Amino acid sequence: MGKTIAVANQKGGVGKTTTCVNLCCALKEAGAKVLLCDIDPQGNCTSGMGIDKNTASPNLYNVLVDGVNAEKAVVGTKYGDVLPSNAILSGAGIELVNADKREFVLKNALADMKQKYDYIFIDCPPSLEMLTLNALCAADAVMIPVQCEYFALEGLTDLISTIRMTKKALNPALEIEGVLMTMYDARTNFSMQVAEEVKKFFKNKVYNVVIPRNVRISEAPSHGIPVLVYDRTSRGAVTYMELAKEFMRRNRPVPVR
Ligand code: ADP
Ligand code: MG
């Protein structure tokens, strides 16, 4: 049975998509079977994996709204399998409102996929509405990227209370997978201060690996490739490979003694 991880933070531009694309690529390289499910209508992780989002059909919208089998929508790439999305998905939030068990449409759609993959990552949109709620109900755990900047913690209160509420009312098994500090800039004092504050709050849930601000990371998406492929020796690529190692270490089953 695979593990499903929602990568969420209702703040935009914190590194959700970047983390999904590069962590999936690094995990695939390490031999894991990975599916990246793009539930953001912006379709950034679809294009970041080299898929033309505008012609991707069927896509996640068809899966969620038309009941198309998820397997039919999966696109295989060199960097991992993708359930693609595009702007059409923005209508799904409203259409799902009237669906039967509306919070569980994605979970049900991905049920068979859990048998086929080791990890399913869900790249969430920058909101806490129906699509993100579906991701939180489909997930075993939430990964939270936090950008090292002022006000980083401010928006997290809403996210944490949404996670708590989801756990209480809809998905009792939901856990926090980990908190990832992103766009760390060692030259600025506040980057360090934010990282310390986040550690105080989330304690050992914070990954030891911290993603640096790195220009190669921001260049890679325009080429439709992960930074691991774009510039393997860049600090960004190396750090995402380290993150994959830490992620796998944390997910290794503990032997019963
Ligand atoms: P989100 O999915 O949370 O909205 P993205 O992953 O799309 O955020 O990142 C927002 C922007 O910042 C993108 O242009 C991306 O290329 C860039 N970016 C993300 N992480 C880094 C990083 N570590 N260093 C430099 N640029 C980054
Ligand atoms: Mg994104």
UniProtKB/TrEMBL annotation:
Transmembrane segments: none annotated. It catalyses: ATP + H2O = ADP + phosphate + H(+). Gene3D superfamilies: P-loop containing nucleotide triphosphate hydrolases. CDD domains: ParAB_family. It comes from the Bacteria. Residues 3-176 form the AAA domain. It holds the Pfam family AAA_31. Belongs to the ParA family. Dimerizes in the presence of ATP but not ADP; ATP-binding is required for double-stranded (ds)DNA-binding. Interacts with DnaA. This is Sporulation initiation inhibitor protein Soj. It comes from Sporobacter termitidis DSM 10068.
